[in-house]
From TrEMBL:
<dbReference type="GO" id="GO:0006552">
    <property type="term" value="P:L-leucine catabolic process"/>
</dbReference>
<comment type="similarity">
    <text>Belongs to the HMG-CoA lyase family.</text>
</comment>
<dbReference type="InterPro" id="IPR013785">
    <property type="entry name" value="Aldolase_TIM"/>
</dbReference>
<protein>
    <recommendedName>
        <fullName>hydroxymethylglutaryl-CoA lyase</fullName>
        <ecNumber>4.1.3.4</ecNumber>
    </recommendedName>
</protein>
<dbReference type="InterPro" id="IPR043594">
    <property type="entry name" value="HMGL"/>
</dbReference>
<keyword id="KW-0456">Lyase</keyword>
<comment type="pathway">
    <text>Metabolic intermediate metabolism; (S)-3-hydroxy-3-methylglutaryl-CoA degradation; acetoacetate from (S)-3-hydroxy-3-methylglutaryl-CoA: step 1/1.</text>
</comment>
<dbReference type="GO" id="GO:0046872">
    <property type="term" value="F:metal ion binding"/>
</dbReference>
<dbReference type="Pfam" id="PF00682">
    <property type="entry name" value="HMGL-like"/>
</dbReference>
<dbReference type="InterPro" id="IPR000891">
    <property type="entry name" value="PYR_CT"/>
</dbReference>
<feature type="domain" description="Pyruvate carboxyltransferase">
    <location>
        <begin position="7"/>
        <end position="274"/>
    </location>
</feature>
<keyword id="KW-0479">Metal-binding</keyword>
<dbReference type="GO" id="GO:0004419">
    <property type="term" value="F:hydroxymethylglutaryl-CoA lyase activity"/>
</dbReference>
<dbReference type="InterPro" id="IPR000138">
    <property type="entry name" value="HMG_CoA_lyase_AS"/>
</dbReference>
<dbReference type="GO" id="GO:0046951">
    <property type="term" value="P:ketone body biosynthetic process"/>
</dbReference>
Length: 302
């Protein structure tokens, strides 16, 4: 299969990237990060999450962030909303697109959101009805698609079942997430082969963590399967608080370097993207997780 000519990157740094940080992050720093990413040319940015601060403290203040960011034409500013209450809070904040998530593994679903997969899907029904009434688009996530920290391997057919449910209830796109970053290129191709039997591949996305250093290989394998949307996090920020040992999302800078090398269009400015990632890493007082950013910055210092 020919590689896609254009790829859309879904920037999850402000949400998935920051949710696992220990120290408090100010609303101003979150706003600056989102605005920096907009300026770099990202067309889709997951800004925050409307969940209880008790469970995810770093997502407190998401409404204030939405109120203060400089929203640019043609850019989608989305939020994660795990239930109807979260959706209503997002709607009040003026959010035009939301995301919901389900697990492919029963054990992870229980650990993450304290309910079964079936119960989690049932919770989305009133949310989907409300979203349709208000003209809000909904994107779906499926986690643990290439392995679960509690259940081990997960059959592609099980993932396809959950993805079908999300797509059938109205999610316009379903992102398949390798939450623990254990998948390989062969696993990835098999996954999209199976799920792609029921859902058009243009409606699927890939979300890869780099725990085992396989994220870019998995993205290339996905490209070969006709997938053209990928979630990534600036500076490789992130991880899952409910998946022990899972490291950050694949760095947006590293994915962009891969895509640029393949001649695939994204509309993203690498220099501005690296600056955005380095700025938030300075705020967090942590090393930049992007190899491309580190190499580029080191070269500039020579």
């Amino acid at each position: 299969m020919n590689l896609p000519k254009q790829v859309r990157l879904v920037e999850v740094g402000p949400r998935d990237g920051l949710q696992n940080e220990k120290q408090p992050i100010s609303v101003a720093d979150k706003v600056r990060l989102v605005d920096d990413l907009s300026a770099a040319g990202l067309s889709y940015i997951e800004v925050g999450s409307f969940v209880s601060p008790k469970w995810v403290p770093q997502m407190a203040g998401s409404a204030e962030v939405f109120a203060q960011i400089q929203q640019q034409p043609g850019v989608t500013y989305a939020a994660l909303t795990p239930n109807l209450r979260g959706f209503e809070a997002a709607l009040e904040a003026g959010v035009k697109e939301v995301a919901v998530f389900a697990a492919a593994s029963e054990a992870f679903s229980q650990k993450n959101i304290n309910c079964s997969i079936a119960e989690s899907l049932e919770r989305f029904v009133p949310l989907m009805v409300a979203a349709k009434q208000h003209g809000v688009r909904v994107r779906g996530y499926v986690s643990c698609v290439l392995g679960c920290p509690y259940d081990g391997s997960v059959a592609p057919e099980q993932i396809a079942l959950v993805a079908r449910e999300l797509f059938a209830m109205g999610c316009y796109e379903v992102s398949l997430g390798d939450t623990i970053g254990a998948g390989t290129a062969g696993d990835t191709r098999r996954l999209f082969e199976v799920v792609g039997r029921d859902i058009p591949r243009e409606k699927l996305a890939g979300h890869f963590h780099d725990t085992y250093g396989q994220a870019l290989a998995n993205i290339y394998a996905s490209l070969l399967e006709g997938i053209s949307v990928f979630d990534s996090s600036v500076a490789g920020l992130g991880g899952c608080p409910y998946a022990k040992g899972a490291t950050g999302n694949v760095a947006t800078e590293d994915v962009l370097y891969l895509l640029n090398g393949l001649g695939i269009e994204t509309g993203i400015d690498m220099d501005k993207l690296i600056s955005a990632g380095q700025r938030i890493c300075t705020v967090l007082d942590k090393p930049n997780g992007s190899r491309v950013a580190r190499a580029t910055l080191a070269r500039q210092l020579r």
